[in-house]
Amino acid sequence: MTNDPEERERKTITEKSAGSLSASTERWGIRSVLFEQIIEIVDPEPHSAALNMAVDEALLQRAMAPTLRIYRWCQPAVSLGYFSRIAEAEPTAAGRELVRRWTGGGLVEHGEDITYTLLVPRDAAFFQYTPLDSYRMIHERIARWLSDGGVSAGVAPSSAAETSGACFVSHVRYDIVTGNTKLAGAAQRRTRWGLLHQGSIQIGGARHDAIALAGTFATRIEQTEISESVWRSAEEIAQQKYATEGWLRKF
């Protein structure tokens, strides 16, 4: 038995081998997944916009393996990319919670979407892919997952003309689309800890099984809850960074 308190807190709910993956992953074959194993964070309770961003950062600092987190919002919110201008974001937010992400990209409306984060530690082989390739590979698997759930989806081969700063008004190369309509987009940041990939899937409030999504990325899945030390760190990061006016109004 481990002496690590965080490891003792971990509750392993399920681990799926290649022989017991979701039906969709089995159809694609084992080579279609990105990782041998992924940790899926069990986080069913909704959080404030600032805390959601802070949890992602706290998890990234401690990531020892590829990690997937799907999360919810206490109230409708709008997140803006790191370099977005606050003056352009406030009219879109229209009284909703507004938060600046650590990743780039445009304005994203949250509440009815599926919001997820994929974390990849720096020493993982996947970290060596270029940002564009990693973006494509992640979205190819999410598009297949959506298609298996009955949502027509594919990866855009090229960018559409940009018409505004709103992320889902137009798509860029390798976003997920149905026809010319954008279904899912994401933004990335690479740090000394690893890759932070934050994404939003806008499918009209429909919910997909998180295990099925994790199964498109890895041959084995381990579920775990967020440890107390990560919560403490996230609350501190939220208070000192994401919930501050200085961070929100950087640009």
TrEMBL record:
Gene3D superfamilies: Bira Bifunctional Protein, Domain 2
Transmembrane segments: none
Keywords, in A-Z order: Ligase
Pfam families: LplA-B_cat (PF21948)
Domain of life, per lineage: Bacteria
Stretches for region Disordered: 1-20
GO molecular function ontology, one term from the record: ligase activity
Residue ranges occupied by any BPL/LPL catalytic domain in the UniProt entry: 62-251
Biased composition annotated in UniProt, kind: Basic and acidic residues: 1-14
InterPro entries: aa-tRNA-synth_II/BPL/LPL, BPL_LPL_catalytic, Octanoyltrans_LipM/LipL
PROSITE patterns, A to Z: BPL_LPL_CATALYTIC
Entry protein name: Biotin/lipoate A/B protein ligase
Organism: Chthoniobacter flavus Ellin428
